[in-house]
Amino acid sequence: xxxxxxxxxxxxxxxxxxxxxxxxxxxxxxxxxxxxxxxxxxxxxxxxxxxxxxxxxxxxxxxxxxxxxxxxxxxxxxxxxxxxxxxxxxxxxxxxxxxxxxxxxxxxxxxxxxxxxxxxxxxxxxxxxxxxxxxxxxxxxxxxxxxxxxxxxxxxxxxxxxxxxxxxxxxxxxxxxxxxxxxxxxxxxxxxxxxxxxxxxxxxxxxxxxxxxxxxxxxxxxxxxxxxxxxxxxxxxxxxxxxxxxxxxxxxxxxxxxxxxxxxxxxxxxxxxxxxxxxxxxxxxxxxxxxxxxxxxxxxxxxxxxxxxxxxxxxxxxxxxxxxxxxxx
Length: 329
Known about the structure:
The chain is α/β, with parallel strands linked by helices and 329 residues long. It has helices spanning 19-33, 77-88, 102-113, 221-231, 241-245, 276-282, 311-328; strands at residues 4-8, 10-11, 14-15, 37-43, 61-66, 93-97, 117-121, 123-127, 130-137, 142-148, 153-157, 172-175, 207-211, 235-239, 266-270, 287-292, 305-308. It is built from 7 helices and 17 strands.
């Protein structure tokens, strides 16, 4: 079979922003292989009402598994259900988002199916009957092409890389029964604790504002918050490793090799020198804007736009200009 299965995510009954991106990546593979795109959505009772947008994004079949035990992500339940459906469907490839949830789910599915996994992929093709993935290596300094000699090919895609598509057609919705027994799952999820409020996760935000040690004090983060607010609701907040290690910001905001890898359309590096550890997490951003008082800072080597100056003078003016432009539009 040449059909492709796109595993899409939901939270609190609503599709995540990465859902249509995974479907878009699946559309590209299916176009090359001549197969169909099937989307798989797991959730609590009534989750089937949230499938709007998946068909318009290219999914010809939307498989929905509804069960109260699947209302929230479960590290035993989700992998068991996905692995079963992926195996029964005889798919050529199964795609996940390389999000916080996907980075936990995809390896567990791979282990259950005893298959390799290509993670954090930025490009996909179907050549010679096999899936070829492009992955960043050496902290993003190079890219490698990996041919996946396994069926199905398991792949997780980097958020904000595969742009959602719009195409006519209404995909049919299929309800799939959950045959797994939740009482047999050894793990029990007690609760979830939200840390970012209404601010998008830095790994999924289309615009990211990050700060480094140049901010001098955690209280100065209010300047970055103002810039983020001026950029709109879709902007996220990030931080360098040095800032997180100092306890200024939570680890969930860390961008870099030991933090999160981001690929937003627009990335602001404020007071960040640009150590290789940080560059590994953000150098694939569409447009990079850097503000630093050191003209020789490594960050300027990857920046599309750079401002050499005192960030405490630059940031308020930059924020005001952006706010004025947005209000004018």
